[in-house]
Amino acid sequence: MSRFRLYPTPEQQAGLLQQCGHARYVWNLALEQWSIWSPGRPRTPGFAAQCRQLTEARAVFGWLRAGSQTVQQQALRDFDRAVSSFHAGTHKRPTWRRAGRHEGFRIVGSQASRVAKLNRRVAAVKVPKIGWVRFRLSRSVPAATSYRITRDRLGHWHIAFAAIPPSIPGPGAGSIVGVDRGVTVSAALSTGELLTCPGLTEAEHARLACLQRRLARCTRGSNRRRRTQAAIAKLHARVADRRKDWVEKTSTDLARRFDLIRVEDLRITQMTKRPDRKQDPHRPGGYLPNRRRAKAGLNRGILASGWGALVRRLEHKAPGRLEKIDPAYTSQTCGVCGHCAPENRENQAAFRCVACGHQAHADVNAAVNIAAGRAVSARRGTPPRAPSKREPQHAASA
């Protein structure tokens, strides 16, 4: 999906916010109808029935009729697809949309093709009930049948055209790379490269801490609190943009340089779950320490490293050339002799094999094992397995 920065006028911003409110209102109504269903009750209305209900509501309420019917019907269509994806097990359960957090709507059909190029750097798109809105031509506009307009927490508007970009061809030399993802080092390659996802600088961390202390002293609902929240959101949006830029550049570079990319098969959702509470048997109603704060810090580090986004973009840019390897004991196995022992991993960064004396960066050594496709068994000291028949023939030479 190609995203561009949108530059609406103040009058157009008010109209776009109104369209976002209509789409959010229709989505939440459809979610409410779907949520109240229980066994034994009649089936909740589907997309066609909800469209008829929308037509009746637009005839009664003028504020709803002032918006675009295309935007409102598309919100119902998006909700119907979200429910279908939830029942199929591919997506999470649809949730409520909130003002200020979920601001956006989608346009499909003939309206999506109405894009006019004004000059070398600026183009305009026709939005229903709004008119022509300018956006920055940072790249060529793809041929798409739909687009989505969104507003982030900083008040920046974006337009994203729904178009699947072409995959990136590999070099064709049979090169293989293993990628070990971590917190201190975001991605370690079997070639010895250490890649780190950029975050906030030291000065920005200090400013964030100052703003958070200021926010704790602000009165709820005050203008000072809203300004402070906007400043904090600006810092978080900045680091999110840096992370996305790093993921895009890193995934493109890997897809161009290597024919086969192997990564750990990590369950990030399970790894970032909150620890369960443990009841204290000697104190009724009390709980034992479960290191919740330390786990929260680890979760933030995992999510800030962009583990999932990197693999998703690799799947998009290098389809069929990404393999997921069982991560069991890859960090304790020597990439030279294959000896597996917990003593090999001296600390987070250092690896020294107690059998052959091989020394390397711990993450790079794990990436070498991933590149070789090794999935060591639970018995320590077991040598790495030989490549199976299902694996490519060049796996043995990795």
What does this structure look like?
The chain has helices at 10-35, 47-60, 62-65, 69-88, 202-217, 223-257, 268-271, 292-304, 307-317, 362-371; strands at 2-7, 103-108, 115-117, 122-127, 131-136, 146-151, 157-161, 176-181, 187-189, 194-195, 260-264, 278-279, 287-288, 322-325, 350-352, 359-361. By secondary structure, it is an alpha+beta fold. The protein has three domains: 2-161, no CATH class; 176-276 and 292-325, no CATH class; 342-395, no CATH class. Strand 3 and strand 4 form a beta hairpin. Helix 5 packs antiparallel against helix 6 and helix 6 (223-257) packs across helix 9. The protein is globular and about 80 Å long.
Break the fold down into its secondary structure elements and pairings:
Layout: E1 2-7, H1 10-35, H2 47-60, H3 62-65, H4 69-88, E2 103-108, E3 115-117, E4 122-127, E5 131-136, E6 146-151, E7 157-161, E8 176-181, E9 187-189, E10 194-195, H5 202-217, H6 223-257, E11 260-264, H7 268-271, E12 278-279, E13 287-288, H8 292-304, H9 307-317, E14 322-325, E15 350-352, E16 359-361, H10 362-371
